[in-house]
Amino acid sequence: MARRLRFSPLRMVTLVSAALFALPVLTVVWHIFLPSDGNWAHLAATVLPRYVTNSLVLMLGVGAGVLVVGVATAWLVTACRFPGRRIFEWALILPLAVPTYVMAYAYTDFFQFSGPLQSGLRGLTGWGPQDLHLPEIRSLGGAILVFIAALFPYVYLVVRAAFLQRSAGILETGRTLGLGPGQLFRRLAVPLARPAMVAGLALALMETLADYGAVSYFGVQTFTTGIYRTWFSLGDRVAASQLSAGLLGFVVLLLLLERWSRRRARYHRADAGARRPARFDLQGWHRYGAAVVCGLPVLMGFVLPALVLLSMLLSLGEFNWPSHYGDWISNTLLLGLVTATVATGLALLIGSALRLGRSRVLAVAGRLAGLGYAIPGSIIAVGVLIPFAAFDNGLDSWMREVFGLSTGLLLTGTAAGLVFAYLVRFLSVSLQTVNSGFERLSPSLDAAAQSLGAGEGRLLRRLHLPLLKGTLLTAFLLVFVDVMKELPATLIMRPFNFDTLAVTAHNFAIDERLAEAALPSLTIVAVGLLPVIILARLIATSSTVAAAGEAGPGGPGFGLAGPQAMGYQGK
C-alpha cells in the first residue's frame, strides 16, 4: 500500500522538479485555446495538410523499415550461427552514434549527382549525365532511408532482449516438435516479441517526429520545420504553439498505441532468463546471406557515413583547424557538462525520494519530471521560451516602475534558459539510468541503515552515493552526449553568437559547405561512440539484456540496456 506523503527535502525536490519540467508541455497545451493573429487559419489552409501528410508518410515508411531490419537482425544474431555473428551483436548498435542530421549530410555527398556513387558509375559504364537517373536523395524517400539506417537499433535492441529473455524454453520446445528456423520465427518468436516490437517502433517513430536537422536539410516539410518557420519567420508564438500541440498529439497517439499493444501481455519465466535459446547452424548460402543481412545495416548506418565524412574532411586538401573550432568545442562542453551534472544530481535525489517515500503523489511527480524525453526538442523550446519571456518582461516592467532599473533578459536567449530546456528534454535519460541502479540494490540495505538511525540525507550520502558511482557516471555520460547532439532546441534557444558543434554542422550544411560540416560532424560521432561502447560492453558481458519493452516508452521498466535509457535520439 502506498504511504501517505510527508514533507522532506527529497520529496520537495521531486515535486518542484515535476512542476517545473511539466511547465513547457502545459504551456503548449494552454496555447491551443488562445486566439491567433490569423496565421493559424492561413497555415491550416495552406501548409498544415502537407505537414500532416509528410509526417504520416515518414512514420509509415520508417516504421515498416525499422521493423523489418530490426526484427530480422535481432532474430539472426540471437537464434542462428553464421560468420561474423559475434561482431554483429554489438556492431548493429553503432548507428546510434550517428545523429540523423549528420547521416543526412553524408548521404547527400555520397548519393548526389557529383558524389562518389554516381561519378563512379558513370566512369565504369561510360554513361553520360543524361543516361543515369537515380532517385533524388534530398527528398521524402531519402529522408525515410536515412531514418531507417539511423533508428533501426531501437527495434533491434528491445526485440533482441525479448528473444533472449522470454523465448528460450518455448523455442526449444518448438524445435523438439520439428519446427525449423522460419516456422519458429513466424509462429512463436514474433508473437512473443510483439510488445517489444511495438515499444521499439514507438521509440523510433517518436525520434522521427522529433527530427528537425535531416528533414529541413532534405526540404521535407513536417511539423518540426513548420514550428521553426512559424516562430522565426512569422513571429507568431501562438501559431507555433498550436503546431507544437499537433505534433504532441502524434506523440501521445504513439504512446497510447504502445500501451494498448501490451494491455494483455503476460510473461512468466521460471528460469528468470538465465538460458539463451539454442542456435541453429545455418548451412550453405544461408550462412552468407545472414551475414549480408546483418552487415548491410551496419554499412549503411555507420561505416558509410563515417567514411564519407572522413573523405569530405580530407578533400579540403591542406587542413587548417577552423579559427572558431575552439569556441564550438568550449560552448558544447559547457552546455554538456552543466546539464549532465545537474541532471545526474537531480536524478539521484528524485530516485532516492521515489525509493524511500513510496506514494502515488511521488510516483506521478516522478513521471512528470521525466516526461520530456517523449517530447520533441522544438516543442520544449517553444514551451520554455513563452513563460521565460513573460517572466523576463514582467520582472523588467516591475523593476522599471519601482526602482527605475531595467533587468533586461535574464532567462530568454541565455545559456541558463537553454540548459533548462535540455533538462526538460533529458532528465528522463539520467532518471531511468539511476532508477535501474537503485533496482539492483536490495531494500534490506535501506532497512538496515534506517534501523541504525540513518535519516534520508545520511542514507543518500553514506549508502546510495557510494554504491551508485558507476551508474551515476553512466548517466552523466549519456546526458552529456545527448546534449552534444541536440539540434532543434539549440537552434531555437541558443544565445546570440553562441554556436555548438551541432548548430555549426547544420549551418555549414544548409550553406552547401558539406566539407566544412565534416569536422564538427565527425567530432559529434566520435563522442557519441562513448555510450555505444558502454552498451556494447553490457551486451557482451551479460548473459541477457534487460528487456526495455516491458514498460514501454517513459515507463518505469526501462533498464540500462534499453535505447531510451541509453538516451539516443535521432535529431
Can you give keywords for this protein?
single chain; 1% strand; 2 strands; two-stranded parallel ribbon; MetI-like fold; 571 residues; mainly alpha; 2 domains; 24 helices; 72% helix
- When the domains are counted, the total is 2
Our estimate of the beta-strand percent is: under 5%
Sheet having the most strands: 2 strands, parallel
The average pLDDT value, as a whole number, equals: 79
What structural class do you assign from the helix and strand content?
mainly alpha
C-alpha end-to-end distance: 41 Å
Written overview of the protein:
This protein is mainly α. It folds into 2 domains: 209 residues, MetI-like fold, CATH 1.10.3720.10; 297 residues, MetI-like fold, CATH 1.10.3720.10. It is built from 24 helices and 2 strands. Strands 1-2 form a two-stranded parallel ribbon. It starts with 8 loop residues before the first helix and ends in a 5-residue tail after the last helix.
Short description:
The chain is mainly α and 571 residues long.
